[in-house]
Amino acid sequence: MRVKIRVGQNADDVGWALAKIFGIVVVLSAMVSSGTKTTGGTAFGGGTGALLPASIHAARVDTLTVSSAARVRRMLASPGQTVRAGQLLAELESEEVVRQAESARRRLSAAQPRAGEGGITELDARSALGEGIRRQEELKVTAPHDGVVVGTVLAAGDRVSAGTPIVHVADQSKLSFEASVTPLMARKIKPGDPVRIRVPTVPPRQLDAQVSTVALASDPAQQSYIVRAIIANPDFNAILVGKKGAIELRRSAMSWRGPF
Question: What CA–CA distance (Å, rounded) separates 59 from 21?
């Protein structure tokens, strides 16, 4: 593109002409950039990688249950509550467990000291009593580690069957960033690939990490995969679980595998 400037032309006119040229160049550059597609993400940073929206989860969530049918006596935990390892979260009661423990004590009292003399042996009776005591202690639901209660819908008086979730406790010392990608893209991403995590703290942070796993989504019908990267929680004062972040795939780690 040529720009003719007449001798003696006003400097303001020259500046205006150059400004118009610069504006045209910017528009053309934007059009070219918008025509560049990156499957599963947004190209940025001069084509250095792809940006994948990611949901944030606690890297570890424990679901606490009991092995006996029981009734909730007290619920001491509520969603969002911070708890410590060993802290009592719920107390349950079970007539069946009480009967089992009492029966075991009676059997121990009546047990023969040696096998082969008829009746139950002392060893068997002690084993049954130990099992009864274990089941009674199990009805006191405690936190397995420091964390946050992320789910409970039970209240005092509710009855539960064996295996029913009582409390969910999340260990938020590590966070899992999870992004959905297509099967084609999943084949080109491997555990250990370097990524950059964009964390929605105030102010926002960017942390270097690695791909932890690439796995089929929980609903196979979606035909999508989940790319997961785990990082240490950078800010315990911010509630990050449930928010949205991003995983930046680095082009340098993927270029040798070819285009998506």
Answer: 52
Delineate the domains of the chain, giving CATH numbers in brackets.
Answer: 39-59+172-257 (2.40.30.170), 61-170 (2.40.50.100)
What angle is formed at CA 38 by the lines to CA 48 and CA 175, rounded to 5 degrees?
A: 70
Q: What are phi and psi of 107, to 5 degrees?
A: -65, -35
Give the integer Cα–Cα distance in Å for 156 and 138.
Answer: 17
Mean pLDDT of 67-82: 90
Rounded CA-CA distance 25/11 in Å is 21
Which phi and psi (to 5°) does residue 106 adopt?
Answer: -65, -40
* pTM assigned to the model: 0.62
Alpha carbon 152 to chain centroid, angstroms? 17
Q: Which residue has the tokens 């009967």?
A: 99
